[in-house]
From TrEMBL:
<feature type="transmembrane region" description="Helical">
    <location>
        <begin position="49"/>
        <end position="70"/>
    </location>
</feature>
<feature type="domain" description="Fatty acid desaturase N-terminal">
    <location>
        <begin position="19"/>
        <end position="58"/>
    </location>
</feature>
<keyword id="KW-0812">Transmembrane</keyword>
<dbReference type="InterPro" id="IPR012171">
    <property type="entry name" value="Fatty_acid_desaturase"/>
</dbReference>
<dbReference type="Pfam" id="PF00487">
    <property type="entry name" value="FA_desaturase"/>
</dbReference>
<feature type="transmembrane region" description="Helical">
    <location>
        <begin position="171"/>
        <end position="190"/>
    </location>
</feature>
<dbReference type="GO" id="GO:0016020">
    <property type="term" value="C:membrane"/>
</dbReference>
<dbReference type="GO" id="GO:0016717">
    <property type="term" value="F:oxidoreductase activity, acting on paired donors, with oxidation of a pair of donors resulting in the reduction of molecular oxygen to two molecules of water"/>
</dbReference>
<keyword id="KW-1133">Transmembrane helix</keyword>
<feature type="domain" description="Fatty acid desaturase">
    <location>
        <begin position="79"/>
        <end position="338"/>
    </location>
</feature>
<comment type="pathway">
    <text>Lipid metabolism.</text>
</comment>
<comment type="similarity">
    <text>Belongs to the fatty acid desaturase type 1 family.</text>
</comment>
<keyword id="KW-0472">Membrane</keyword>
<feature type="transmembrane region" description="Helical">
    <location>
        <begin position="82"/>
        <end position="99"/>
    </location>
</feature>
<dbReference type="Pfam" id="PF11960">
    <property type="entry name" value="DUF3474"/>
</dbReference>
<feature type="transmembrane region" description="Helical">
    <location>
        <begin position="243"/>
        <end position="266"/>
    </location>
</feature>
<dbReference type="GO" id="GO:0006629">
    <property type="term" value="P:lipid metabolic process"/>
</dbReference>
Length: 377
């Protein structure tokens, strides 16, 4: 008789629900476990990552425009996918640094953070201040079904009529393909997957419901930054041709957008993570309802935004280069409230797309305000 192979403990643990009751520790106790220097921001060190990333991007761009046309076939066709992959990954790291500027984690000077963030995000066609303010509200309301800003799960009664037709392997392929390619621009332009508002919400609209009166001027500035880069791309198309711009800039940007959506989706979507309605939600439990992931060598390329996300939600002004040390320090305090999933990313995103369709509370009188992912339509 064959004996079934035992299931590894880590595989069981990773699908075991995290606690949803109020933690037996406080944010202050967690912070005390972190070495004080982890909260210190260095202008020189932060800029070193900007320079390093932009140097790689510039070198790859120079090689592409100088040598690719000299390569004999089929090497010239092989060179482009390599270029796209490297540029897309490194530019995602640039995106992360700009994200850090939005959290005031780049330096001790808000004006410097905003200047660097506006420049870097505009180059990637991201409205810096617009996203900064909506993302700040995401951090203030993580895990709330009513007030979170992005990847807000729907209740069963709120899922679209066509969801049952997509709840199969071909449907999941289509859903993931659309999400990874169009998800980011659709979110910025139409608030797709974002928090529902009582009227049309758009990150480019200074008078939209996402923003307050004191934020509107900066939304105009964000729009001008994106328009300036768009105009530069238009002039480049006129000079070099559309195909040239798509190959050198467009495809890497699509990869950046896909990574951004994938990273964010996997940080906040997991079968073991709770969501809360207004009767149960509080900031601390919401911030803990996130998961760290392992992207292998890309963890470093992405400046560890992937595997230190729990710490980032607890201390968002902490620079990324201290986040690994802080994560190691807080894990013993968090205990079961800390969730790490080392499942390979392709396997993980497929599992989450299959298992995490909508949220509902468990049956019974207790925990009515605590919602868990389901997939039975």
């Amino acid at each position: 008789m064959t004996v079934p192979s035992p299931v590894k403990k880590s595989e069981v643990d990773v699908l075991q629900r995290v606690p949803h009751a109020k933690p037996p520790f406080t944010l202050s106790q967690v912070k005390k476990a972190v070495p004080p220097h982890c909260f210190q921001r260095s202008v020189l060190r932060s800029f070193s990552y900007v320079i390093y990333d932009l140097a790689i991007v510039s070198a790859c761009f120079y090689i592409a425009i100088t040598y690719f046309h000299l390569l004999p076939s089929p090497f010239n066709y092989l060179a482009w996918p390599i270029y796209w992959a490297i540029q897309g990954c490194v530019l995602t790291g640039v995106w992360v640094v700009a994200h850090e500027c939005g959290h005031h984690a780049f330096s001790d000077y808000q004006w410097l953070d905003d200047t660097v963030g506006l420049f870097l995000h505009s180059c990637l066609l991201v409205p810096y201040f617009s996203w900064k303010y909506s993302h700040r509200r995401h951090h203030s309301n993580t895990g709330s079904l009513e007030r979170d800003e992005v990847f807000v799960p729907k209740r069963k009664s709120g899922i679209a009529w066509y969801s049952k037709y997509l709840n199969n392997p071909p449907g999941r392929v289509i859903t993931l393909a659309v999400t990874l390619t169009l998800g980011w621009p659709l979110y910025l332009a139409f608030n797709v997957s974002g928090r529902p508002y009582d009227r049309f919400a758009c990150h480019y609209d200074p008078y939209g419901p996402i923003y307050s009166d004191r934020e509107r001027l900066q939304i105009f500035i964000s729009d001008l930054g994106v328009l300036a880069v768009t105009y530069g791309l238009y002039k480049l198309v006129a000079a070099q041709g559309l195909v040239w711009v798509i190959c050198h800039y467009g495809v890497p940007l699509l990869i950046v957008n896909a990574f951004l959506v994938m990273i964010t989706y996997l940080q906040h979507t997991h079968p073991t993570l709770p969501h809360y309605d207004a009767s149960e939600w509080d900031w601390f439990r919401g911030a803990l309802a996130t998961v760290d992931r392992d992207y292998g060598i890309l963890n470093k390329v992405f400046h560890n935004i992937t595997d230190t996300h729990v710490a980032h939600h607890l201390f968002s002004t902490m620079p990324h280069y201290h986040a690994m040390e802080a994560t190691k320090a807080i894990k013993p305090i968090l205990g079961g409230y800390y969730q790490f999933d080392g499942t390979p990313i392709c396997k993980a995103i497929w599992r989450e797309a299959k298992e995490c369709i909508y949220v509902e509370p468990d049956d019974g009188a207790q925990g009515k305000g605590v919602f868990w992912y389901r997939n039975k339509i």
